[in-house]
Amino acid sequence: MKKLIILCGFFLLSFYALAQGEYEKKVFISSAGDSLNYRLLRPEVLKSGKKYPVVLFLHGSGERGNDNEKQLTHGCRMFQNPVNREKYPAFVLCPQCPLTGYWGYSSRPVSFLPSEMPASTEELTPVFRSVKELLDTYLAMPQVDKSRIYIIGLSMGGMGTYDLVCRFPEIFAAAVPICGTVNPLRLKSAKNVSFRIFHGDSDDVVPVEGSREAYKALKACGAKVEYIEFPGCNHGSWNPAFNYPDFMSWLFSQRKK
User: Fold this and answer.
1) Cβ distance 118 to 181 under 8 Å?
2) Residue 88 maps to which CATH number?
3) How far is CA 155 from CA 9, 205, 209, in A?
4) What is the pLDDT of residue 91?
5) Which H or E run contains 153?
């Protein structure tokens, strides 16, 4: 009887988890034959004739690997919140960068100071080529609202966010780079993307100058940009960023003209 109760409890918990909505484990194979682990969260209900936004979420360097798990550590879970799922239905893509990769760059940049970051666009790395092809498969879906494509990234993913938006500004309605950095000379191409930048002023991993200079450069070229800096916050500025009062409502209100 005790075993039966435990078994029933397990099935109830499993059913509850499914009802709450779990990220599906997926593997994408690129045109070059490279495999990319990613997680997918779908809208709870796909209504006929309705179109939904896509959120591309880029994790930091600490979540690299091949377990298809760690990339959900910071931030991705907020999209599973029942209130958020009901209010902001979307396709959420969370790819995982291999341990030897570094999103937009062939290797970890020697310096994260904005003036010392690459000023020109390198060739797409294999992993970012796979990410772009993955995104393209969702852009081709009739259920996707191509005017509401969003990208979020933290740390290494913040750098990747800048990189993808500079390469493909025509795709994204909004970008949220958190504790990232970029050479500001690259940002002119992204002037038609809405930005919300977050950083801690005490960051001892990625200097806060990266976000400050990005904000100035985007402002100078007429972009719609906000910059939120957290006093006394070190590198983990994604925690206050994801808890920022209108994080979700701001993101999902952005639309490509």
Assistant:
1) no
2) 3.40.50.1820
3) 40, 9, 13
4) 98
5) strand 144-154
Residue 5 covered by a domain = no
Residue 208, domain extent: 22-253
Is residue 98 within 8 A of residue 64, CB to CB? The reply is yes
CA angle 12, 40, 141 (to 5 degrees): 125
Alpha helices in the chain (DSSP H): 2-20, 82-87, 126-139, 156-167, 209-220, 238-242, 247-253
CA distance 36 to 62: 17
Q: pTM higher than 0.85, yes or no? A: yes
Question: Which residues lie below 8 Å from residue 22, measured CB to CB, with a gap of 6+?
Answer: 41, 80
Phi first, then psi: what are they for 28, rounded to 5°? -105, 135
Q: What are phi and psi of 48, to 5 degrees?
A: -60, 130
Contacts (Cβ under 8 Å, ≥6 apart) of 75: 57, 152, 154, 238, 242
How much is the CA Rg of the chain, to the nearest whole Å?
19
User: How many structural domains compose the chain?
Assistant: 1
Share of the chain above pLDDT 70, in %: 92
Tens digits of per-residue pLDDT, 193-205?
999 999 999 999 9
* Angle of CA points 118, 115, 153, to nearest 5°: 65
Domain assignment present for residue 183? The answer is yes
- Tokens describing residue 152: 């979020």
Reported confidence tier of residue 6, pLDDT bands at 50, 70, 90: very low
Could you count the other beta carbons within 10 Å of the beta carbon of residue 106?
14
Strand, coil or helix: what is 74?
A: coil
